[in-house]
Each structure stands twice: as C-alpha cells, then as structure tokens.
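Exercise 3.2. Students should predict the tertiary structure of the chain below and write it as structure tokens, then compare their answer with the key that follows.

Predict this chain's 3D structure.
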Amino acid sequence: MTNLNTSNPLLSVSTLKNRAVPFHEIKNEHYLPAVKEAIQQAQRQLEKVVDHSESANFENTIEALENLSEPLDYVATIFYKLLSAHSNEEMQKLAGEIGPLLSQFSNDVTLNPELFKRVQSVYDQKAQLTLSTEQATLLENTYKDFQRNGALLDADKKQTLREIDKRLSELTPKFAENLLKATNSFEMLLTDPSDVTGLPESALESAEHAAKEKGHEKGWLFTLDIPSYLAFMKYADHRELREKLYKAYASRSFGGEFDNQKVLKEIAKLRFQRAQLLGYPTHAHFILEKRMAETPEKVHKFLDRIAEVSLPAAQKDITELQEFVNSQQGPSTLQRWDFSYYSEKLKEQKYHFNEEEIRPYFKLENVIAGAFEHARRLYGIRFEKSSDYPTYHGEVTTYDVYSEETNEFIGVFFADFFPRSSKRGGAWMTNIYRQGLFMGEVMRPHVVIVCNFTKSTPTKPSLLTYDEVRTLFHEFGHALHGLLSKCHYRSLSGTSVYWDFVELPSQVMENWTLEHETLSLFAKHYQTNEVIPKELTQKLKNSSLFQAGYTSLRQVSLGKLDFAWHALDPSGVDDVPAYESQVMTPFNAVPEVPGTNLSCNFSHIFAGGYSAGYYSYKWAEVLDADTFELFKEKGLYNKEVATSFKKNILEKGGSEHPMELYKRFRGREPDPDALLRRDQFI
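Answer key:
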C-alpha cells in the first residue's frame, strides 16, 4: 500500500508507532472518497493479475489475490469497526452507500471468468505443486470462495447474484441501524423512591448518574443498555415497572418507526435465493459446507441431543421456580418479567449467595489486571499500558503486548468497555490489523475488545457483575486468538477459522473464572483489598449450575429459530411473530408476551455474521468443556497443556482444518459428553 492520497488519512501509510491508525485525523467525509479510490486501486491490481504474461502459478495468482486489496481492506475495516463501536447518523447513511460498493467489487473479483480460469489452473495443478500446509489451505479456500460466490454461473445468473449481494449489503446494516435506534429511543425516568426498592446501591448510583448526564436534576434513569436493563429486571421489586421495561426491550424493532419485520424477511428470502442460485438447497447448506458441523442434519441431531438431556433439567428448574413464586406471593402465573427477579431470590435462598456480595471484589481495573496475569501464566506474555496510540473515543485504552521470555513485540490491545449511544449493545472482539502479510511485511495484530459494562460513578469505581467478568474473559479469549496468531496470510490468521470453532478460545477462558486459584489473582475488595474468601468462591461455583437446564434449552431454542429462518424456504413466511411462535413454543417455559418478538432484534443472525451459525455457541461448549477437563486433570496453569493449546490452536488460526488442530492438541476428537458432564446432565 503506497500513499494513494496524502490529504486523506485513510489512504496514507501511517507513520505512527506500529502503523497505528490515526483515528484522531479521520472524519466522516474521508470514508466514501477513500473507499472509491481504494476500489479503483484494487481494480488496477486485479487487471494486472488477470493480464499477467506468465502462466498462472501460486505466487502470481493465489498470493496476488490475497494481497489484492490491502488499502480497501484497511479502509473498510476501520469504517465497520467504528460503525459498531462509535457510530452516528452520518455513518449509518454512509453504510448504505459503502456496503453496495464493496459488494460490487467483491463480485467483480469472484465473477471474473478470466481470473477464475487462472485460479482453476493453479488448483488443477495442486498435486504437482510443492506447497506448505498454509499455502495449500489458502489455495483450497481461494478456489472454494470463487466457486461458492458464483464463478461457475452463467452470465444471467451472475447478474442476479450481483443484485442479491448488493441488496443484502444494504439490508444487514439497516437491520442493525434500526435496532440501535430502537434501543436508544426508550428511557424510563423514575423519581419516586418506592419505584426503585430492591435495587442494589450500585445500580441506583449508575441510574442516578445516567439521569444527571441527561440533564435531569433528580431521579433514576433506566435504559435498554444491558447493565441498566438487567439490573432492573433482576432486582426491582416494582412488578409493573419490570413489565414495562421487559416489554420495551423485547419489542425493540417490532413494529413502529424502526420495525425490522420487512427487513428480516427480505434478508432471509434473499439468502435462500442466493443459496439456490449456487446449487445449495438452503442458506444453511451453503454456510455449513465450511463448518465443522458440515450439514443441517448434523446440527439438528446435535441440538436435539442437547435438548433431550436438557429438557428434564429445564422442567425441574421451572417447576422449582414456580413453586418458589407461589410460596412468595401466593399462586400466580410466572411471567417473563418475573423470571430474573424470582430466579435471583431463589438462588439467594438456595445457595445463601447474592451476586451483589461478590461484586465489590470485581473492580474493573483489577479484573483487567487479572486477565493479563492469567495470560502471562498460561502463555508467557505481558501487557504494558501505552498512550502512544490514537483511539476513536476517549474511554478506549491501549496496551503493547510482549513475550515475557524474549521481549518480542506481539501486538497492540485496545479495550473499550462502557456503553454509549454511539455503540451497539453486546460484547465483541475485532481486529484493526489482522496478523499476517500486509504491505510487504508480516504484521503483528492490533485487536480490540468492545463491551458494555457498568460505568464508574463519582463515588464508586466500575464494579462488574460475575456475568460481566465472564464476558471480559470470553472476549479476552478471542483477543488472545488474534494476538498469538503466527500465520503468513491474513485471511487465515487469528480468528479466521470455522465459525463453530471460533468460540473455543473464548469460551474455554470462562472456565477459569469459577476457580479460586484464578479468582485469587484479581478478586480483591475495592475498599479493603481483601482477597475473595474461598467460601464465597465456592458459593459462586455451586450457583453456577443454577438453572443450567433452562439455560441450555434456551440456547437450543435460539439455534432452532436461526435454522427456521435459514434451513428452510422462508418465502412463504408472511407473519413473523406467528412463524417464530411456531418454532419457539415447544421450548417456552414461560408464556409468550403479545407485542414482543425475538427475530426482530436477533442481530447475531441478521446483522452479525451468525446466520445458520448460532448453534456454534453450543458446539464450541463441547470443545471447551473437553479442553478444560485436560487443564483440570493436569493443572490449571500447566505449562505443557497451555503451550500445546497455544501452538496447536491459537497460533495456527485457520491454516489447517480445525478438527486436525484439535486432535493434535487433545490427542483425539472431542468427547461430546464432556459438556453434559460439566452441566451435570449425566
């Protein structure tokens, strides 16, 4: 990548430390011109590959394609990173223009018949070529990507595919935009102290602080941001207000100004049409061709097995909760806005444990330091806070990462922890730079984790819930997958793996957060600095399987809903809530609430890349339970096991088939019963 335009920071080679992105210089007006210019440059490179005078070989075709659009990849990465983490109205409008341009260029590559001839020529010679394992994977992936994106279609069908891809590139950001606007459009200001009884001091302080930030002189402001919403649903005694908040959350983008019903129906129909055009029965068949699960039939079988063993436990969980509710307020039907509230009270009674008891031990800064120490003990790396890197928001902090043994630079870690109106909900990890070949050298990665944790207040630091601690470790696991990657090609590095494998490095990290050996590294009372007592850790561990059956069945139901939209022909679906109800009713432990709908805010599958892939969370739980059994057997910080996981899983990215990598680490295929043992279903 040479400087394409020195006046546009997105088109200039960064001269900052480790090629840091100059976020402080980037303005909204830079994006569209940068995308257009980078596309032109990539098209010129494309012509060079197609018109190359020599016969097609690995270097002049496959490797050239890998590096074809470096400036464009850079611009698009930054734009979409900020669209999720620090967006505004103008960027959301730009997404509607930029998405189709990128889709069109992608089609220009994969639908170019002369280029595909060159790719096919190299692919046909693969048995005679002397390629490394990673090169062989890149060749296989490149050929399959062309095939799966229409290279074998005739001209008319190629044009249809272009039109479908263009429309999808407009619809998926529209779904996310609608959901963000719907989430931000609701606020509940309470001024009567009787409305907030039951809420812990931490939640009240945050709500009071939120009210003041919005210009209210007094009162408590509750929103649909996860920390605010969950605290109210779990602790607020006021049932009617819980109902009001629940209905607002569960009806986001269902009807009204930001309705997603038409959007999601069109997305599902177009994905189905696209799959059929390419010769696949459904979108799920298309997606699963490049997954460990391989076919929809295998996924259904897997989910049905989990459902079969979860169902008795889930029924027991619900019966126990209903009996508890009856004992508390007399016989009454358990409603969805009661679930978290009474579950928390039952858990407290059953385990003599309240999550607020442990919260003072989870000061955010200590948890971060604990995650870093955890990584040091496992993988021999250290994190050093740095102010050398520009960030896209003042709350983002940056760290340099080094090998403890050799002092070798490993990468840059960005942490963005707090909710804001410009950020979508949830938690995720992303890359600014992927590890691998970029601009002529193998670059170390710049990775980001983005969360929505409870903010500090003027009188109290940010104290995390246990769920937030687990979320931080989860996303940190993804970050380590990105940081520790040792691949040559960017498209194969870090988290560029099959989607039902990508959650292994993240989900396995959550296991350590229930172990006293790990918690004692960082769980210290924010006022006294006392290490969390062992008895409290044990109570946390005992309560971790509370409602495990219900939780497992809930995950299965979401996987089934995803497949209802993507493993069947959705063209006959007119009534979104009726269709959803048909799928979810067998799994509903608590009655459905009229006027609410999950599909309309199911951003994972309609805007987040998990279409026909939500099952992968459960799939990866099998892998992570099986992996953690080995750590439990050999020692939580056993160097031999940790080094094997690092070398065979984290460093390899997608350079080999995940089952081969897993077998190399574990010595065998994963044991599906490991998850059932952990959840105590068998």
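Discussion points: The mean pLDDT is 96. DSSP finds 27 helices and nine strands in the chain.
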